[in-house]
Specification:
By secondary structure, this protein is mainly alpha-helical. The protein contains 32 helices and 9 strands.
């Protein structure tokens, strides 16, 4: 994308005489162009380029989408933890880092926001929103032709703007958005430094690494990706034979492990993660060092290093030393040359490392008030989260992200295999022909490697959560933008060479493509919107939508628009001169997918942000918690004239109530068991159903006689057992009951069983009912089962029920509301007579 200039730049030698003056032609007539006036020159100088205007529009859209209605959704369980401890820190009670809640950057940023703007749900998410806006604008730093290009960078910002997962977690106070922005900036620094070794990028990289280490442990995965990519790129440039040496080492290691397994050698000792003692750690280290696999692996590693050094010694220029002799001869713009420049710039290295270390120390020591944070932020953090791999919190299957990503990131998921093929094909062709690869290929190779390794590592890890998907989304989105940007550049050149007739033809083909895709979507929406029928999925009766009866025998006709679209595309591709029109068709279809992503992000973020109908939401605090807090605040002001209302709450409601009750000066936490109530019982008691049976008989009698209760969902979750877990067998899960949702076949399961289960799910899409089910789920989030919930009770002292009804329903509805309370209480007692968990009277 380029901007027009008001005058043509002079070309050396063009129309010039030997003396440098313009040569006059006796037959040519000099043009009589009128020079622009001063006012015209000033207007042209002040006119911003179109590219800048587009970035400004994207920035404004990012600000609006990230900050609008930021506090309406209830704080998630984890959000309430982060908010509460940040608030304590802002109140001057200190902060001590613990690996359970990742790095300290979030807590310092949130505490700063509270000091500046006050503690509210909205302000809690402001730091995340700020980094979300920055993430959208960072691609502007990759506008170079050897990076993403101008079209690619602009499209990358736009795609990050409309990415549903990026949008949702940019408004979510977790550590991932901070780690993601840092990772992106680090990879930008790498690409820019390789392109042109400038000290600013070296310093930026050092500071960014220091910040990343204060955010989230996924940083270790990002740094592994960065370091291994650099090593691979350098080995390819300096000594390709190193791949054979390392390959031989890996094969030897595999043969050693297989041989020891056949000999019946015991596996590696278990790491004592849970509260390890000094003796336990020493015993583990001794057993580990003596294990045959470790001894053999160390021997293979030693031989690999010796072989690599021998090879490098033969290649290097002995007169120039090791660094300059190996990497200094590499051409500019290569990773090897960038490494040589890095090692030569000792000042830049010192500044980057020093500033990064200073930031790391400042945050982990809580502004020098907690020296122990340096240990918990390094060995402690890595050890804790490696231990969680075996715990498998969430127990998500190996295919979790493979199913999660395509439901929201349509373009990124669709174009990732294309990008992988393009990078592999161009790389092999250059290798065979002995050609050099350009910077654009280098950038795409980094994105393919980044996305592939991140997807593989997170799919293997035992700790799988939906917010981690953004670490896969980012490289895949950038790769999609790079491919679309190259297509836009080719389309721009083709458009400039076409005449008016060809342009009209291209526009008509684009509109036809978009129209046919929209027609298919509307037909599928109509055909799948059949009547509801009773179903017993999940063990209890419920209503499930079916396809329309009138289309049941003619379902294939709904796919006719896509068939016509495929025929048109094949016809255009068959005509060589018409093939550029495929770019217009692809652009139109990409626009359609963008519109679907905007729809998914709007529904997920704004319309149903605290209702877990999306797989991406997973678990969410219900909006009733926020409404309850407002009612309690109003009741407190009514009774005490301030926030002095006495509220008791148990362990099951502790989060998020520690946050929502933070300003109630008389709040009281009583753990999991309520023994007895005082003579003057508290006005309000919050009790989770999980611990309801733990109360003493005396407390149960007091609650039954003195209180009326209303029951709410504390948090609710996506019905995963009835949806995505049926896709395939997951033998890696420790819980055998969650390994197989398809058949009654008991464990153990072989690789063949897993592959057959995958094929079973894919082949089931031949059935119209299954197609309709998947379509309604992805397009409209119509679930095949009800969402689950964790519930709690709000016990209100009987003498305060009229006040609560007045506050909730108003004076006009007080009497009717009180009658509803009594009626509901009587009905509930009749329905649950003899239920051991039924203590007290249920309010409406």
């Amino acid at each position: 994308m380029s901007t027009r200039r008001w005058a043509r730049r002079a070309v050396p030698g063009e129309g010039a005489a030997p003396n440098g003056r313009v040569a006059a032609s006796p037959t040519a007539v000099a043009p009589t162009a009128t020079p622009p006036s001063r006012r015209g020159l000033r207007a042209l100088a002040l006119r911003p380029p179109v590219e800048l205007l587009l970035y400004v529009a994207i920035a404004l859209a990012a600000l609006l989408s990230r900050f609008w209605d930021l506090g309406s959704r209830a704080l998630h369980h984890d959000e309430s933890l982060h908010a509460y401890y940040s608030w304590i820190y802002a109140e001057g009670e200190g902060y001590i880092h613990h690996p359970l809640m990742h790095g300290p950057a979030l807590f310092h940023l949130d505490a700063l926001a509270y000091l500046l703007f006050g503690a509210t749900d909205y302000v809690t998410r402001v730091p995340a929103a700020v980094f979300g806006v920055a993430l959208v604008l960072l691609p502007a730093l990759l506008r170079g032709e050897g990076l993403l290009g101008r079209w690619g960078a602009l499209l990358a910002s736009f795609l990050l703007l409309v990415s549903p997962s990026t949008l949702y977690f940019s408004r979510f106070i977790r550590h991932d958005i901070f780690a993601l922005a840092g990772t992106f900036l680090l990879f930008i620094a790498l690409l820019r430094y390789v392109e042109r070794p400038e000290r600013r990028w070296l310093i930026t990289g050092g500071v960014t690494i220091g910040f990343m280490l204060t955010t989230h442990e996924v940083t270790f995965v990002s740094l592994f990706i960065l370091v291994t990519f650099i090593l691979i790129a350098i080995a390819y440039r300096v000594a390709p034979a190193l791949f054979w040496i390392f390959g031989a080492g890996l094969i030897a290691l595999g043969l050693l492990a297989a041989g020891l397994d056949r000999l019946g050698v015991a596996p590696l000792p278990d790491i004592p993660w849970q509260n390890p003692t000094r003796d336990a750690v020493l015993a583990y280290l001794v057993a580990l060092v003596r294990h045959p696999l470790v001894v053999g692996a160390l021997g293979i590693a030693l031989l690999t290093v010796i072989g690599s050094l021998w090879l490098l010694d033969r290649i290097r220029d002995p007169e120039r030393g090791w660094v300059d002799g190996l990497f200094g001869v590499a051409p500019p713009g290569t990773t090897a040359r960038a490494l040589a420049d890095t090692l030569a710039d000792r000042t830049g290295l010192a500044l980057g490392a020093g500033l990064g270390l200073a930031l790391f120390t400042l945050l982990y020591t809580s502004l020098f008030t907690n020296p122990g944070g340096l240990a918990s932020g390094t060995v402690g953090a890595l050890g804790y989260w490696l231990g969680q791999h075996g715990v498998q919190r969430g127990e998500q299957p190996w295919f979790y992200y493979l199913l999660l990503l395509p439901q929201y990131e349509y373009l990124a998921a669709l174009l990732f295999p294309v990008g992988l093929g393009v990078v592999a094909g161009q790389g092999l062709r250059a290798l065979v022909r002995g050609q050099e690869l350009d910077g654009r290929w280098y950038t795409r190779a980094l994105l393919v490697y980044w996305g592939s390794v991140m997807l593989a590592v997170l799919s293997w890890a035992g700790e799988k959560m939906p917010w981690l998907v953004v670490h896969i989304t980012l490289p895949l989105t950038l790769l999609a933008a790079s491919l679309l940007g190259s297509g836009a550049e080719r389309l721009e050149r083709a458009w400039a060479s076409w005449d008016a007739r060809q342009r009209r033809r291209s526009v008509y083909l684009g509109l036809a493509s978009l129209g046919l895709a929209a027609a298919w979507f509307l037909l599928m929406a109509w055909g799948s919107a059949g009547p509801f029928v009773q179903s017993t999925t999940g063990g209890f009766p419920q209503l499930v939508r079916t396809i329309r009866p009138e289309i049941a025998g003619h379902w294939r006709w709904l796919w006719l628009p896509l068939v016509v679209l495929a025929v048109i595309a094949a016809t255009v591709a068959a005509e060589r001169r018409a093939r550029p029109h495929l770019l217009t068709m692809s652009a139109a279809l990409s626009l359609g997918l963008v519109l679907l992503q905007i729809h998914a992000g709007w529904r997920l973020t704004y319309r149903e942000g605290d209702v877990p109908r999306d797989m991406l939401i997973y678990v969410q605090t219900s909006p009733q918690v926020v409404q309850l807090t407002r009612d309690l605040e109003a009741l407190s002001h009514e009774l005490t004239g301030g926030m002095g209302l006495e509220v008791w709450y148990d362990s099951g409601t502790q989060w998020p109530m520690n946050w929502y009750l933070r300003e109630f000066t008389s709040r009281r936490y009583f753990g999991t068991t309520l023994r007895e109530l005082p003579t003057d019982p508290p006005p309000v008691i919050l009790y989770s159903l999980e611990y309801l049976n733990n109360m003493s008989p005396e407390a149960a009698r007091q609650l039954e006689s003195q209180y009326t209760y209303v029951e709410y969902p504390m948090r609710w979750w996506f019905p995963e057992d009835q949806t995505y877990r049926r896709f395939a067998i997951a033998p890696e899960l420790k819980n055998e009951a969650r390994q197989n949702y398809q058949t009654d076949q008991p464990p153990p399961y072989s690789a063949g069983d897993v592959l057959r289960s995958v094929w079973s799910s894919i082949s089931s899409l031949q059935r119209p009912e299954q197609q309709a089910k998947v379509f309604r789920l992805v397009a409209f989030r119509e679930l095949p089962a009800t969402i689950g919930s964790y519930r709690f009770r709000v016990y209100i002292r009987n003498d305060l029920v009229p006040y609560v009804n007045d506050l909730r329903y108003g004076d006009s509805g007080s009497a009717a509301a009180h009658e509803d309370v009594a009626s509901a209480a009587t009905q509930h007692d009749e329905e649950h007579a003899g239920d051991p968990g039924n203590s007290g009277t249920r309010a409406s």
